[in-house]
Amino acid sequence: MKLLLISDRESEYLWDYYQPGRLDGYDLILSCGDLHAQYLSFLVTMGRMPLFYVHGNHDQTYDIRPPEGCECIEDRLVIFNGLRILGLGGSIWYSGGPHQYTEGQMARRIRRLWFQLRRAGGVDLVITHAPAQGCGDGEDHAHRGFACLLRLMDQYHPQYLVHGHVHTTYHAERPRVIRRGDTTIINAYERYVLEI
Asked: What is the pTM of this model?
């Protein structure tokens, strides 16, 4: 299965300079947030494949005009071709805006998912906006990761955790892919191709 992971910056290659066929071969698009709704609608239309998304901390307009043809999997576990995917959007609380959470609020969101996770027999891939604490997060408060995502990985051992929020242009020296225990952590900034 071939997945297109996107976050935080619209890819000129896939939007401004799009050419027919550039989305051929993908089975699913996963958005980790902070992208224009029109961009997501464009990708799902041109690619003719499902697109699942979570909210970034700058996605206030999704409440008024959500991306057409796309599915929000915020606080849900969905199964696609046997792949169990969990969605947890938002960032750490830093200014009181929408889709910002304290550590305690995010931990409660995760705890409320226990029944979905148990019924599905676990999770294979977690998509978030913010990273886990110490796993590709930033040093400033707004880009700090969630410690409760570490506990989620330790308890359920997903194969992948995919996040956005931390722009690779800000931290060019940081690797996009890191490993923590059984989990491969991927920063989906702009676009990243994952084959499972």
From this structure: 0.95
Tokens encoding 107: 């931990």
CA 54 to the chain's CA centroid = 6
E strands in the chain = 2-6, 28-31, 51-53, 71-72, 76-80, 83-88, 91-92, 100-101, 125-128, 160-163, 177-180, 183-187, 192-195
> What CATH homologous superfamily does 2-195 map to?
Metallo-dependent phosphatases (3.60.21.10)
Percent of the chain with pLDDT strictly greater than 70:
99
Q: Long-range contact list for 132-136, CB < 8 A, 24+ apart?
A: 132/161, 132/163, 132/180, 132/185, 135/161, 135/178, 135/180, 135/185, 136/163, 136/166, 136/174, 136/175, 136/178, 136/185, 136/187
